[in-house]
Amino acid sequence: MPQTTAEAQAPQTSTVDFLPLHGTDYVEFYVGNAKQAAHFYKTAFGFQSLAYAGPETGVMDRASYVIRQEKLTFVLTTALKPNNPIADHVALHGDGVKMLALKVDDASDAWIQTTKRGAKSYMEPKTLKDENGEVVMSGIHTYGDTVHLFIERKNYKGTFMPGYRKWESNYNPPPSGLLYVDHCVGNVGWNQMNPWVKFYEDVMGFKNILSFDDNDISTEYSALMSKVMSNGNGYVKFPINEPAEGKKKSQVEEYLDFYLGEGVQHVAIATHDIIKTVTDLKNRGVEFLSIPPNYYEDVLDRVGKIDEDLQPLKELGILIDKDDEGYLLQIFSKPLQDRPTVFFEIIQRKGAKSFGKGNFKALFEALEREQELRGNL
Ligand code: FE2
Questions:
Q1: Residue 7 lies in a domain
Q2: Residue 311, class by beta-carbon neighbours within 10 Å (0-12 exposed, 13-18 middle, 19+ buried)?
Q3: pTM above 0.85?
Q4: Relative to the CA of 314, which of 34, 81, 182, 191 has its CA 20 to 30 Å away?
Q5: Is the predicted pLDDT of residue 4 greater than 50, yes or no?
Q6: Ligand 1 mean position, distance from CA 236 (Å)
Q7: What is the pLDDT of residue 305?
Q8: How far is the CA of 11 from the centre of ligand 1 (A)?
């Protein structure tokens, strides 16, 4: 019997996760005007003011506004002067996601493990301290100008992190039911999907859990390919898209043309009640892609019985898909800024762990209608 115990306790070296992640810590956008962007995300999506950094806190080159709703934290950062990396990023890409910050127990080890496996360092581990404790952060480059930061905050009790002060506001709009980042999608260039899949496998220990080729994701006009990368516990999921040949320009190409390179295409945000959340967001002025009513004629034949009434889903344009484990409800916003680049997905999972493959055709046809209006199809 002792042998059995020893066996049960023996370390399973093959399954040891060298980069344990506890989910998304925050998403940082570089924007042209952070004060106004923070107001937009509070008003339109129901975030609350959390923290601020800028000249008043001793940060002279930028202003950063931190907003939060449940486990979803956004940082909106702008440059205060030209000719620095933030101003250059915004001039080139427009408003977009710069940092996908991941929660770790040990930011130094995360940096060591990933850089020794080939990641290009963005920031060596550094410790930020104030009277509330310390935060250790480090970072590596990923596709385009996008960065993964590793954030270790187990010894910190302050509002956000050293360098920031609490942001008290008289304007505290009610939340909209957004909970946390479900997944975050990157658009990469022609023939770049597999190299980035390999990066997430080799450098971060992720696994490819789903793949879609251009037969899965194509319409009469345009196509793309996608592979979903997930970390060991499934808290961090990064689908990677690349364009595929079609008769006309794909949505990924349009993104690459306007972002001037690879970057984050969409952030998918979870809710427990998508009908309530989307009704609320629409009332606040958030615009979503519209889905033709005939999508709903046979959708229940495809997905089977669902708990929700079909009518509100149809009125709101919410899509439905299923996999072996259940179903999901999802909807996609229009771009969040003037360039047709980053947008949000709102998703409610009812067992399903997939990404809405059954909706791709309807979704891409909706996207093509928008592309056509912009003259980019
Ligand atoms: Fe998605």
A1: no
A2: exposed
A3: yes
A4: 182
A5: no
A6: 13
A7: 94
A8: 35
- Name beta bridge partners: 158: none
Same domain, yes or no, for 336 and 293?
A: yes
What is the CA(212)–ligand 1 centre distance, in A? 13
C-alpha 154 – ligand 1 centre gap (Å): 30
**Which CATH number fits the domain that encloses residue 79?**
3.10.180.10
> How many angstroms separate the alpha carbon of residue 231 from the centre of ligand 1?
16
The pair of three-digit structure tokens given for residue 52, joined into one six-digit string: 């601020």
- Classify residue 338: in a domain, yes or no: yes
151 shares its domain with 190: no
Instruction: Give the residue numbers spanning the domain of 265.
Output: 178-374
* Pair 152, 183 in one domain: no
Residue 15 lies in a domain: no
Give residue 7's pLDDT. Answer: 39
**Considering 166, 186, 207, which residue would you say is the last residue of a domain?**
166
Q: H or E stretch including 302?
A: helix 299-303
Helix (H, G, I), strand (E, B) or coil at 16: coil
**Rounded distance from Cα 185 to ligand 1 centre (Å):** 6
As separate numbers, helices (DSSP H) first and strands (DSSP E) second, the chain gives 10, 17
Whether residue 185 is predicted with pLDDT greater than 50 in this model: the reply is: yes
Q: Are residues 100 and 197 in the same domain?
A: no
- The per-residue pLDDT for range 264-290, each reduced to its tens digit, is 999 999 999 999 999 999 999 999 998
pLDDT surpassing 50 at residue 3: no
Report the SS3 class of residue 324.
Answer: coil
pLDDT at 14: 54
Query: Which residue, 133, 166, 199, sits at the end of a domain?
Result: 166
Q: How many domains does the chain have?
A: 2
